[in-house]
Amino acid sequence: MIGTDSAQQRAATPMARCTALLILLLASSASHAAEPGSAEAEAALAAMGMERAVVTSGPDAMEILVRHDTVRRPVLVMVPGSACMPALMLVEGNDGFGNISSVMPPSAASQREMGVHLALLERRNLSSFRHVYSKEETAQLASLDMHVCTERNGAVTLSQRRDDVLAQLAYLRRQPWAGPILLVGVSEGTDVATAVAAEHSSNVHALLLIVGAGMSQFFDFVHQARAAGDNASATQVLVTLDAFLSGNPPADYQGHGPARWQSFAIAQTNLDSLMGSTAPVFIVHGSADTSVPIASVDALVVEVMRRQPARALHYMVVDGGGHSLWSVLADPPARIYPPFVRWALEPPQGRTFSNVGVGSAP
């Protein structure tokens, strides 16, 4: 990195963002750890009504966790964020074992009420419940060596992640029970979801972008520094961006190599991708997000409205919400997914806006 990053910039790095999104799904009374690939691990999936689908094997293996019946229905497809972690993880706690998710899936009951199937997309060569995390590992999930993103472990660039998701969607579309694809991107997953829609718009019936639909990460860094009154750091971000554009990027910038920044923050942004599709888009963001400032999302919404006035758009602001919407909502999936599914299947028209928070109605 050129110069010294500010505290605001460090809080916004992809790995810091992912830590805020980890959620406890349920507690287990298991008295011992499941071994990788054991029947007990598969039983943990079955207890959640999930099954593992292998999309590809070999050096770039990809899986999907699905919860479905035999009736053809819309599929709520979840694209994970920046964390190179499995969608579901079995972790040791003080009272046994519990499940942590790196995405934000709805409960089985909520899924049934919405009338959709569920698909959690795994990142490249990652697989849920293949490892049991000790208490020590659970306390530092984001910094574990096994969660470092590489080309073989989760993939690094936007094009790699986009192509992986396209392969996973192709698998889903071949299933007789799979109806229209409702594609959900969480945090960095929003970049991937919009890139997928831009590449093959026919793949996506509607987009849901949660806590990640900003203009670009360099915009975010500059805005955060200015908001903190740190003009020197804001200038340093611009100097760093200029280094990338001039072909002399730093070998490491906020924990990531130049390939990641070039693909996600320079060559293509959410706004660029959105201009390549017309799929209805439902955007959810917290007004107090310190990782992706809401000013960045406001700017994107304004530009989408201005450039694509015929596009169906809904913008939901979670009052006081941070990058983890659990900070103000008791059950974010229950507050977000049902209105999105209803909106997406109406079909949606025009541009609408809503605010939700602790005191607002579901």
Automatic annotation (TrEMBL):
Source organism, top-level taxon: Bacteria
Keyword Glycosyltransferase found: no
Segment forming the signal sequence: 1-33
EC number of this enzyme: 3.4.-.-
GO molecular function terms listed in the Swiss-Prot or TrEMBL record: hydrolase activity
Keyword Signal set for record: yes
Keywords: Hydrolase, Signal
Name the UniProt record assigns to this protein: Alpha/beta hydrolase family protein
Annotated organism of origin: Pseudoxanthomonas kaohsiungensis
Top-level taxonomy: Bacteria, Pseudomonadati, Pseudomonadota, Gammaproteobacteria, Lysobacterales
